[in-house]
Amino acid sequence: MAFPKFPTGFVFGTADVTRPGGEQDVDLLKRLGAPGYRFAVSWRELQPGGRGALDAAARDRYDRLVDELLEADLRPSATLYAGELPEPLAADGGWLNRATVDAFGDYAEAVAALIGDRVPEWVPVQDPNVGAYLGYGLGTIAPGRRAGWGVVAAMHHLLLAHGRGVQVLRTAGATTVGCATHHEPIWPLSEDPADVGAAKLVDLAWNGVPLEAMLMGRYPRDIAGLADDVVMPGDMAVIRSPLDFYGINYFAPQRIGASAEGDDLPFRLVPLVGYPATDTGWGVVPTALREWLIITRSRYRAAMPPIVLTGCGAAYDAPVENGVVDDQARVDYLEAHLEAISAAIERGVDVRGFYAYTLLDRDGWEAPFTGKDWEDGVGGKYGLVHVDDAGVRTPKRSFGWYADLVAAHSEGAPTG
Fold first, then answer.
1. Which of 2, 112, 180, 402 sits CB 3.0–4.6 Å from 247 for a disulfide?
2. What pLDDT score does 368 carry?
3. How many CA atoms within 13 Å lie on the side-chain side of 112?
4. What residue stretch is flagged as signal peptide (predicted)?
5. CB neighbours of 22 closer than 8 A, spacing ≥ 6?
6. Which helix (H) or strand (E) holds 394?
């Protein structure tokens, strides 16, 4: 069986937004053979008050999880924040309140003291653009706020928390710290100037803001003035704290049109027709990932550290039949996107790893942002492993394919 080719040292793994269920899931990870495993520490679970003492049971659970991963020869990659904000902080304004950044810094110190001696890789804040724009702009995920221009403060504070987390982790001795940001190509609906302008605005806000802030220590020129009231001296230097890798969570491009009459937003999301789609309606366009990687690397050049695909996957439902889950569509999706990444590497893009999203279907699991499935098609079944209502795990066909890919790479990957 032919697989996409990657350089020696390329890291394969899986990424979950929830913690594993215990030893059975660590055993699954060991069977898969992909050494990297990204998991998120729940701030809400570990420090329910948002400040002060950590929950004893949660401390033990995360402590044990890291030991189990290491005993299985797996490489833990821990994310400090993936959307689970403690209730007292949420009630006090959440990320609209700059004090949340200070609380996050203290929390980062506590987590580093708990498991920092054994976790080799870290992400302080996952998907700050998702948390800000969907949580405080559109209101489609927790906390469900439509804060108007307050979304600018939420985005800035999430990015500032990222930078603060980088600094805290460095002080604690962490040697590999990066980010994991949701990026997607933004395509205009047409060549009409109104559509092109709307797409440019969304691209600047969604892609440009985190990239420019983390890599260049500034906000995109066309929208920088919007943040004047929330940026304090020294903030941008903190956000620009050096990274060992730039993590990209990628799923699909988005098509944007000018707002329709009566809309309260300056843009509208338009269905991406003409391409295959996942169960959640997201278009499958692997070449878009290749081109985005090439263009973005060219744009930022020396400012861009090595890239890691920190999450990439697709939602496809398939039943268990005679103990088998035939999810060939997921195999095709992963293979095509890995081929796109391989092609980008051949064009000179420095990509060091790929984390398949996710290990497990989320049936019976809480999504981190809302306590329920995400809205607008994000709550589908992304797992390499089927999970039924009773919690029984059944590895899918994609699990076997991914295991074979990893084994083939480890046995004889080229050095290109």
1. 180
2. 37
3. 23
4. none
5. none
6. strand 393-395
Contact 30, 73 (CB under 8 A): yes
Residue 3 lies in a domain: no
Gap between the terminal Cα atoms of the chain: 20
Give the whole-angstrom CA distance, residue 217 versus residue 235: 9
Quickly list DSSP for 71-88.
Answer: HTT-EEEEEEESS---HH
Q: How far is CA 298 from CA 344, 347, 349, in A?
A: 11, 10, 8
Domain membership of residue 102 as a residue range? 11-411
89: Cβ–Cβ under 8 A, 6 or more apart, which residues? 50, 97, 100, 103
Instruction: Please state which of the ranges 55-59, 332-336, 360-364, 401-405 shows the lowest mean pLDDT.
Output: 360-364
Q: What is the pLDDT of residues 119-128, one digit of tens each?
A: 999 999 999 9
Tens of pLDDT along 140-166? 888 999 999 999 999 999 999 999 999
Q: Locate tokens 């004090």: which residue? A: 99
Distance CA 251, CA 108 (A): 28
* DSSP 3-state of 399: helix
CATH of the domain at 34: 3.20.20.80
Query: Residue 19's closest CA among 53, 52, 57?
Result: 57
Contact 384, 395 (CB under 8 A): yes
How far is the C-alpha of 83 from the C-alpha of 141, rounded, in Å? 9
Give buried/exposed letters for 70-106 (b at 16+ CB in 10 A, else e). eeeebbbbbbbbbbbbbeebbeebbbbbbebbebbbe
Say what the pTM is.
0.94
By C-alpha distance, which of 34, 143, 36 is closest to 95? 143
**Domains identified in the chain, total number:** 1
In order, the DSSP letters of 184-250 are --EEESSSSHHHHHHHHHHHIIIIIHHHHHHHHSS--TTTGGGGTTT--TTHHHHHT---SBEEEEE
Residue 5 domain flag: no
Helix 23-32 to helix 56-71 angle, to the nearest 10 degrees? Answer: 30
Q: At what angle do helices 286-300 and 328-346 cross, to 10 degrees?
A: 30
Please provide the DSSP assignment of 91-153 as one string: HTTGGGSTHHHHHHHHHHHHHHHHHTTT--EEEEEB-HHIIIIIIIII--STT----TTHHHH
Domain annotation covers residue 379 = yes
Judge whether 60 lies within some domain.
yes
CA-CA distance, 198 to 254, in Å (whole number)? 12
